[in-house]
Amino acid sequence: MTLSRRSLMAGAAILAASGRARAAADADVVVIGAGAAGLAAAAAIRRGGHSVVVLEARDRIGGRAFTDTSLGTGRSFDAGGQYVHWAERNPWREIARAARVRTSDDATSPWPVLVKDGVRASEAERRQRRAGFGRVSSLLDHPAAPDRSVADAVAGEDEAARAAATGLTRLTLGEEPDRVSTADYDQLWSGDDIWVDGYGALVAGHYADLPVRLGTPATAIDWRGPGVAVETPRGTLRAACAVVTVPVGVLAAGHLRFTPDLPAATAEALDGLRMGAYTKIGLALDPGRLPGQDLRDAVILRSGTPGLTAYLEMQPFGKPLAVLHCGGDGARALCEAGQGGALAAATDHLVSVFGSGIRPAVTAGRLAAWWTDPFARGSYSIARPGHLSAREALRLPVADRIFLAGEAAAGGGAMTVGGATLDGERAAADVLKRLGS
């Protein structure tokens, strides 16, 4: 980006006014959203010697990193992020080690059962599916330009490859293959994955000492003056800068108003992203009523729910629990059906794998409906085909006083707790430069 003399003069004026803005402000910086990005940003700003207030619409911190304990003692599950992805560079690996939380690399788990229409697949069908995934992996490894959707990338392949592509995008990204950019998928970081028992609880505990105002959603940001004025139901806060970490689904829905409107480049970046619908449904199991069989994890294909591909995680970390994972339009339908309908469908899927004898073992359930959650509006960001640059564009500050951050702006770390954390720290570094630290 080339800086004109006019932009340099404007920047100097903003910096000159920043001292006056801070003098009249409630804090140097207001952070909107207490997910991993907002918490990481607030912690870094405070370490930099500046006052910070975090506004959070929910009654808890952590955002989409959330360990659900509603199913009772010994049945907690991560309703949001549960893996420390690309652990070699992910800050949460060392945080988890220091906290001595229970982890697993999941390498010794047996292969999941493959179920089609309630019938366990034959070995030939399993080999065909593995071959399909191999073909898709080769097609998506450094795909040729121009960018296109995953569906277009596999359009000329056989049915096994097309089905594998659908399963891949639904169960890893939470989206349909025609809406996923191959270039965006290719640029995501890879590496070792560490499964954490209570990732959300780890995030909340790590940042428990930060000043967060719970139950305080930001509804509008006025950035016409030298600083920012953030409106909430509990009054208006003034600060020199704002770090905005709410999910792009919330921004796209217009739940946070900006005066004046966000610049065209920022609005275009937001339009280049959408939210996936990765969804989990936890089912509490009564150990005394479980049938005497091997309760293996299962991949469910062509189920009774239209458009649904599901992964059934059985007894994670040995807990009497089943967690159904799904994504894409079938998951959206379950979220929109509400908890009662979603639990009934998840129980039916459980029965389709293990038989009717397991139905009495289900004693309660919980739907993690990120798609219909007004403070999320989806699970995590997906770049539309042809819009790879949207993530980087989100990093550009608005008038040197509004800084967007989160997993959506995390580049190769997108869609992860670790990526959100690193991007929150990146935004904090930009803020500290702006404040002269």
Automatic annotation (TrEMBL):
GO molecular function: tryptophan 2-monooxygenase activity
Keyword DNA-binding: no
Residues spanning the signal sequence: 1-23
Keyword DNA repair: no
Residue ranges of domain Amine oxidase in the record: 100-432
EC annotation from Swiss-Prot or TrEMBL: 1.13.12.3
InterPro entries registered for this protein in UniProt: Amino_oxidase, FAD/NAD-bd_sf, Flavin_monoamine_oxidase, TAT_signal
Keywords: Auxin biosynthesis, Signal
Pathway(s) of this molecule: Plant hormone metabolism; auxin biosynthesis
Enzyme class, broadest EC rank: oxidoreductase
Catalytic activity: L-tryptophan + O2 = indole-3-acetamide + CO2 + H2O
A Gene Ontology BP annotation from the UniProt entry: auxin biosynthetic process
Family: Belongs to the tryptophan 2-monooxygenase family.
UniProt-recorded name of the protein: Tryptophan 2-monooxygenase
Species of origin: Methylobacterium terrae
